Amino acid sequence: MSELSRFQTGFGLTLLTAALLVMAQTASASTLYWIEGIGILPGGDQSWAHGINASGTVAGTSRIGVVWAPADAVVYGAGGLVDLNISTGWPHNDNSALNINDAGQVVGIIANGGFGGFRAFLKTGSQVVEGADLVSGVFSSAYDINNEGQIVGFHTADIYSHDLAYFRSAGGSVTEIGTLGGDTSSANAVNDYSDVVGSAATASGATHAFFWTAAGGIQDLGTLPGGSQSAAYDINNSGQVVGSADGHAVLWQSGVIQDLGMLPGTTSSVAYHINSAGQVVGSSWIPGSSGSGHAVIWIDGQIYDLNALISPDSGWVLGEAVGMNDAGQVVGNGVFNGVGEGFLLTPAGGEGAGVPEPGTVFLIPVGLGAVAWILRRSGSIFNAPREQ
C-alpha cells in the first residue's frame, strides 16, 4: 500500500473515530428518553397519566371497561399499575388520581359518571378521606398536593353556588381564595411554600390566571398584550408560573409574562408543568385537529417536540406532557399502536440524570455514513425497549 493510500485510510479512520466521538458526546448531551407505558387495568381500553413525584411514581386513571365504562384512580411505579380501589357506593364511579407528592399521598376526584356529582379525595397509605370530610360543599375537586400535605382545588357550597378555589392546610383548615371580581375560581397548583396558582373570573366575565398567598391574597397575573384570557397550571418553588394565555403557552416570572411559543406548523400551545430547573412541559396543537397535539418540552425558552426525542420505532405518538420531576422524568398521554395510554419518559442517562439541553449534531463530512450504518446494525441508545 502506498504512503498516500495509508494516509487516506488512516485519515478516514481518524475522521470516523472523530465522528463516533462527536456523535457519542452529542448523544450524551442531548435530551433523549426511554419510554414506557403506564399500562391499562384488565378489561380496560385506555389510561391517562396526570402527575409524577420525585421517585417517579405516576398518578393517573385507567378505564376498567370499554368506551363509556367506569374508570379507576391508579398509580404506576416499581410495582406496575396499581388500582387504588377507591369505592364510594355510587352506581357509576369515575375516579382519577390527579397528583401525588413525594410522601406518596394521592389526591384526585371521584365522579358519579353520567349521573352527575363529584368530590375530592385524599389517599394516605390505606386511608381515604373524601367529600365533605376533606373539604366542605356538595361538589369538590383536589387538583394538587405539595410536600407539606397542603391541597388545592375548588368546591361548591350547594347546587345553586359557583365553584370557588380553596387552600387546605395539612391540618385540615380550609381557606377560601376568592375571585378576581367575578363569581368563579379554581386553584390548580401549590408549591412547597404554600404559593397557589389557578384561574378566576374577572368582573368583566373574562378568565385570568391568578397567584395567591395567605399574606398577600389573590393577584391577577394578567394576559399577553392585547389578550383577554389566561390560566395558570403550575408553580415551582422559585415562584415561576406556567400556563396559557389566548392560545399561547406562557411563563410568568417576577410578574412579567413571556410567550413560550409553539412548534412550527401548529396554531396553539399550553404549558402544564415547570420543575425546579425551570424546564417546562406541555403541548403544541395541530391546526384543524380535534384533540391532536405534540407533547413538548421547553428548555431555556427553546421548544422541542418530545416525539423527536424518542425512538422513531417505538410505536408511540406523544400528544401532551403534563408533569415532570427534577430527575427529568416526564409523564403525559399519547397513543401506543392505536391505543390511548399514559406514558413515562426517563432520560437515557438514567433516572436522576436530569435533562440537559439537546446538543447540536456536528456533521463531519467523512465517516458519518459508516457511523449511521454501525448504529443501524448494532442498535443505538435511541432504540429503548418498551416495558410491558
| Proportion of residues in helical segments | under 10%
What's the shape?
Answer: globular
Instruction: Give the strand order of the largest sheet, numbering strands 1, 2, ... along the chain.
Output: 1-28-27-26
Can you give the mean pLDDT? 83
What is the chain-wise order of helices and strands? HEEEEEEEEEEEEEEEEEEEEEEEEEEEEH
Structural class: mainly beta
| Total count of helical runs of at least 4 residues | 2
Structural Rg = 23 Å
| Annotation, overall tally of beta strands | 28
Give the strand content.
35-45%
Head-to-tail CA distance between termini: 54 Å
Main beta-sheet annotation: 4 strands, antiparallel
Low-confidence stretches: 1-31, 359-388
Written overview of the protein:
With 388 residues, the chain is mainly β. It has 2 helices and 28 strands. The protein has helices spanning 3-28, 368-378; strands at residues 33-37, 47-52, 58-63, 71-77, 80-83, 94-100, 106-111, 118-124, 127-130, 139-145, 151-156, 164-168, 174-176, 181-190, 196-202, 207-213, 217-222, 230-235, 241-245, 248-253, 256-259, 268-274, 280-285, 293-299, 302-305, 316-324, 330-336, 339-347. The strands form 7 sheets. Strands 1-28-27-26 form a 4-stranded antiparallel β-sheet, with no helix packed on it. Strands 2-3-4-5 form a 4-stranded antiparallel β-sheet, with no helix packed on it. The protein is globular, with a radius of gyration of 23 Å. The chain starts with a helix and ends in a 10-residue tail after the last helix. The relative contact order is 0.14. Mean pLDDT is 83; it is low at 1-31 and 359-388.
